[in-house]
């Protein structure tokens, strides 16, 4: 039986079903239409067509007045309205169940893919359904923001698939972040994701971390870690750039690789600042803004709402306490590395 035939037959049967079972039958009809992949408009049209056919087949007695005919029509329309509401409810409910199941399967697959704990053979079979070749190169992009929801994730996923093609991107919500796996050769994924986030959340409420393109199954986990750590570093260091690439922040994993060494550098170079009135915080902030402005005193003063003389005083005070001055070429790198290390370590406590 064709799609139109079964829908037409069921809609006609629904209108003539006993009143006690009609409501549930309408719900079931809507759910089946969703399972069959019919458009909601087709379901609505089917019920309205059946109503029209039933009214056309309804005989009018010779003694019926206009009021009686109107009453019959009103009763039929009221019944159709109730059944249509129930059918649409069944349709949307079934779609939601299917969507939730799809989301769960996708989230489990992405989790297995990125952790590498599943059987490689079974994982490859599941990956094929999503258009992913485990032997190819991939890039993992993570978007982090407050208020990310499954609805936003669905819209982003659909938009990326439309822009770059089905099978080239796989997007899901994982641990509160939007995680996008893209084919390694694609360009513009991060920029398009940023555009979509801006449309959904506005400006300044989100940040995107881009891992490096890596080959194979192990490379997916590596790219994920890089993207996640990039966003973690940005949070610690106060970076507000909307899109950050792991390749641009490789110095930070190096700094943290030997935690004892970076801790020793921070306490040795910057430790004396804790003895200053007001503590180390104002001086660390001054150095941070100064380095962000490439050593420009005027720009630093403007950003901190201080005078240039106040900035100069603070830098001289830093030299007096630590023996280091950012104006000395041989000391600038050590001082800047210590400041970055302090921000990464959350020093002083």
UniProtKB/TrEMBL annotation:
Top-rank taxon: Bacteria
Protein name: CdaR family transcriptional regulator
A UniProt-annotated Pfam family: GGDEF_2
Stated family: Belongs to the CdaR family.
Domain PucR C-terminal helix-turn-helix stretches: 283-339
Domain CdaR GGDEF-like: 115-232
């Amino acid at each position: 039986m064709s799609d139109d035939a079964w829908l037409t037959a069921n809609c006609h049967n629904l209108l003539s079903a006993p009143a006690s079972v009609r409501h549930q039958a309408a719900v079931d009809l809507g759910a089946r239409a969703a399972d069959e992949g019919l458009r909601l408009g087709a379901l609505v049209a089917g019920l309205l067509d059946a109503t029209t056919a039933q009214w056309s087949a309804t005989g009018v007695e010779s003694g019926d007045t206009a009021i009686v005919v109107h009453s019959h029509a009103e009763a039929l329309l009221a019944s159709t309205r109730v059944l249509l509401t129930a059918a649409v409810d069944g349709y949307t409910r079934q779609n939601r169940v299917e969507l939730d199941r799809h989301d769960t399967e996708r989230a489990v697959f992405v989790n297995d893919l990125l952790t590498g704990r599943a059987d490689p053979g079974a994982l490859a079979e599941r990956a094929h359904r999503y258009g992913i070749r485990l032997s190819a190169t991939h890039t993992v992009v993570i978007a982090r923001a407050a208020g990310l929801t499954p609805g936003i994730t669905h819209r982003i996923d659909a938009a990326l698939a439309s822009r770059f093609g089905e099978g080239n991107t796989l997007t899901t919500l994982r641990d509160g972040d939007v995680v996008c796996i893209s084919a390694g050769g694609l360009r513009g994924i991060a920029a398009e994701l940023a555009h979509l986030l801006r449309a959904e959340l506005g400006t300044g409420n989100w940040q995107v971390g881009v891992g490096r393109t890596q080959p194979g199954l192990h490379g997916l986990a590596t790219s994920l870690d890089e993207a996640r750590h990039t966003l973690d570093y940005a949070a610690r260091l106060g970076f507000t750039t909307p899109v950050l690439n792991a390749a641009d922040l490789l110095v930070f994993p190096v700094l943290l690789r030997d935690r004892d060494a970076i801790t020793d550098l921070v306490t040795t170079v910057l430790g004396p600042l804790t003895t200053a009135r007001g503590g180390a915080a104002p001086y660390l902030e001054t150095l941070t803004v100064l380095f962000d402005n490439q050593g420009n005193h005027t720009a630093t003063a403007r950003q901190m709402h201080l005078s240039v003389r106040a900035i100069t005083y603070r830098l001289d005070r830093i030299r007096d306490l630590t023996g280091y001055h950012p104006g000395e070429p041989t000391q600038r790198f050590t001082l800047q590395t210590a400041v970055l290390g302090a921000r990464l370590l959350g020093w002083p406590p």
